[in-house]
Amino acid sequence: MQNKITQLFKIQYPIVQGGMVWTSGWRLASAVSNAGGLGLLGAGSMYPEVLREHIQKCKKATDKPFGVNVPLLYPDIEELMQVIVQEGVKIVFTSAGNPKTWTTFLKENGIIVVHVVSSLKFALKAEEAGVDAVVAEGFEAGGHNGREETTTLVLIPTVKEKINIPLIAAGGIATGQAMLATMVLGADGVQVGSRFVASNEASNHLNFKHEVVHASEGATELTLKELTPVRLLKNKFYYEIKEAYTHNANKEELKKLLGRGRAKKGMFEGDLEEGELEIGQVAALIHDIKPTATIIKEMVAEYQLAKKSIKDIN
User: Can you tell me the distance from the alpha carbon of 114 to that of 221, in angstroms, rounded to the nearest whole number?
Assistant: First the structure.
């Protein structure tokens, strides 16, 4: 499965694991890399020295390429970037911010840079900033989303038509069939998040993993658009948000309701009532918790079978 993405990252399969907060620690990242994909450490839930620890443990756990996902709105961004350079990380995915701010710095330090976008507008800006590739993430995705609410099916060909750098599809991808579909639409690879939440190696709480496995169609919704749009599983906290909207809560009231540490409480500590449970619509297709290597093996097999079935139809 050699193409632009496998060549760029020097990996076996064009499968990238999403750098998700409270989920993407060194165990998951190294497991994905060892299985032939590209593992990413999710720096969004790590202090700089915690990130350093995860990078060092990941190096010991795999001799394959791995990277770090960095939300650019992180308060300790300068310290994070210094840790990344000091530890010799070779691949960085940036998100939630202006790619112009850090792309030049990272590339001057010999780092491959990929930026996550939710629209053609931001994809073009990322390309202009000099990134090596973009992840175009559709509205179906879990966690923080773009305001455009463009679905993956529409976003991928729209971006592909206008950019000249490699394109990675994200949002709603948990099977080999979905992987093939996005690549037919023009993607060079895929980024998978929610499927890896329900893996043995993911650092999120077992309670959250079980909640994802038992999710059904319609179990998630994009909310808090006045702050930062986020897709959540519907739980007690979600319904408190919904109730606040019925009383026309303003931005400050929503901030107060959200408070601090909701994502950690839900995903990492396993509080299924009061926590923020970030997951994609594709949770409805996730029915079990498996080793990461098994997930990747099955995705690749599904991809190959789907590709063959299309040839058979023709």
Answer: 27
